[in-house]
Amino acid sequence: MNILGLLLILINVGAIAGPVAGIAVVYRANPVEMIIPPEVEEIVTRTIGTNKPIELPQYVSSNYDSATQTVVATFSFTNPFKVDLRINSLSADVECVDHVFALGHAELSNPVQINEGATAMITVIFIWTQAAADHFVTAHTGAATIDINLTNLGLDVSGITIETPENIRVNVPLLQ
Amino acid sequence: MFRCCSEGETLQAEINWFGLAGGIAVVLLIGVSIFVPWWQLLVGDSLVKANVSPIYTNFDFIGGSFTIPLLLALNISSIILLAAGGVAILIYSARPAESYSRRLLGFGYRKPLYALILFTVGLVAIVLVVKSVWSIDVPLMGSGRTTLPTNMTQGLTVSVLMVAGFQWPFLLGLAAAGLCIAAKFYDNKIVPIQKNNATNTSTAPATPPPAVA
Prior knowledge:
- The complex is a heterodimer of chains A (176) and B (213).
- Chain A is an alpha+beta fold.
- In chain A, 25% of the residues lie in helices and 41% in strands.
- In chain A, β1 (58-65) and β2 (70-78) form a beta hairpin.
- Chain B is α+β, with helices and mostly antiparallel strands and 213 residues long.
- Chain B has one domain: Butyryl-CoA Dehydrogenase, subunit A, domain 3 (Up-down Bundle).
- Chain B has helices at residues 17-33, 69-94, 101-108, 111-134, 168-203; strands spanning 39-43, 48-52, 58-61, 64-66, 142-147, 157-166.
- Chain B has a 6-stranded antiparallel beta sheet.
- Chain B is elongated and about 70 Å long.
- Chains A and B meet through α1, α2 and β8 of A and α2, α3 and β6 of B.
């Protein structure tokens, strides 16, 4: 075997053994960090780790347009993460809390960008169905407000779709 | 560029052009793969990004970037082996008829092919492991929406959009591997002829023998 052959074999062996052995020596105190580096925990702590509880969007106000039978409800949501989020879509079924009566469907009016730690207003549009209008007349005559539940809540946040079994209860004005 | 030889014609192909192109492609491949991955996975609106190649692998996780040390070691191994293979192919290509050239060719021509095979097999294996252990479908190519296991999401139904695909350096790797294999086959054609030519030149008389009256 000549010198060149020996050199090529050494390159083959050394190229693989050298870096792997080097990493093993560097991380000999904690070999798990060879696969899960400490940076992962730092990133998770920095971006997701937060002492603040993650709250569902809070109801702020609503407007009712009797001509179009449309309720425009505004919610505030504080982004607890240290990363910008974009709410691409939001949808929910709306039902009367007292009578568990389906009133219609609500959807996000426009996508909302929420920077890290910031609070943004989320506008949700809900169009009463004719059955809902009839329900208000028959079951809520004279009432100024009505409690509604947003059920089957679905969110698309930055491409991640979340569906929660939790309901959001909202009291909205009722003009008859 | 390539001259074919009929019997008795001198072959002038002193350079293995396939090898030269393959060697350049390998060196180029190493350079571009540091910046452009061979395969990329995007989760959500780039909330999570995996940039994977035999040369450099890193992950972007919600704005933070990190590498896995063991993968980094394997990436360094790949860089050394591919660089050594590329240089070996280039040296061989310049002087394919030298005594040491066959050894350089044998060392170098397989390296891009091995890199491609190990990369593809490793990628498929990781995708299968993720699916079997965490029940998460990661697409190798194209896009797909996968629902995370509910034990990971505290009762919420969470589905994520994943977009994955091979990038153009992977195709460059295929081309480099193809050129290096072509260099090996082309070597079988040119070197024996060159050796024969060299033998004929050394044994042929300098001047024609005088005619016998």
